[in-house]
């Protein structure tokens, strides 16, 4: 079962002793969730206007592009959009600061990805099974191949009414990969080039990306696994934050509204122990290089 490791970090720029840093990296790379019950993201008074699902335009998430600073998925414009972008940019900076204090080993390899604000209630939200994040899955992005890099994400529950954010957490990545690996179809010859040239993907889709997408879909489509697979439920209270490698930990968000999330990418050679990465685990199971 996925371990939840509570850490006494109450400020985003708090210095972390060496023992805490070691405990954090050991647990994170082994498939645990780092939980900070006293670490809330501070909001400014003017930002209260963003806490309504009406600001999301036909999307469950509002995202901030790490490179250009542009907002996607919001119905806001002008000064209101700029204010929302400023809030999300501040969260991105706070999240990076936390990682550098707690996981300094990752500093040279850490690549910032998109920042997300999630103002829509999860429970009861209509969506396709493939996009249904209430089903257990590991993260893999169809249009943004990672070529083996890790997906590291920082979450904060910023619900102003005190509602918890409920997750289901599954068993080990090894057990899930072992369940499906032998039956995952191989990528078609030339498909990576075709996807890139047609604009479906932003970069080359490696064999690793192909198999992780297949694994993501197979997990979500398997009703037996969703109902009977090893899993637990955990509520992250309002005013708390957590960190997890979402490419390794099977997870599903089932209840909650108003959360911030920051994505980072990490090359496997920046890890303390890259043998614990999904890339190396899948390569062992399939007895071949995947990037």
Q: Radius of gyration, rounded?
A: 19 Å
Q: SSE string, helix = H, strand = E?
A: EHEEEHEEEHHHHEEEEH
> How would you write the strand order of the largest sheet?
1-2-9-6-11-5-3-4
Percent of residues in beta strands: 15-25%
The SS-based structural class is alpha+beta
Low-confidence stretches: none
How many beta strands in the DSSP annotation? Answer: 11
CATH architecture grouping? Sandwich
- Major β-sheet, in short? 8 strands, mixed
Number of H- or I-type helical stretches: 7
CATH class: Mainly Beta
Roughly how much helix do the residues carry, as a percent range?
A: 25-40%
- The CATH topology corresponds to Jelly Rolls
- N/C terminus separation: 29 Å
Mean pLDDT: 95
Number of separate structural domains: 1
Walkthrough of the structure:
This protein has 291 residues and is an alpha+beta fold. It has one domain: Sandwich (Jelly Rolls). It is built from seven helices and eleven strands. An eight-stranded mixed beta sheet has the order 1-2-9-6-11-5-3-4, covered by helices on one side. Helix 3 packs parallel to helix 7. The longest helix is centred in the N-terminal third of the chain and has 25 residues. The protein is globular. The model has no long low-confidence stretch (mean pLDDT 95).
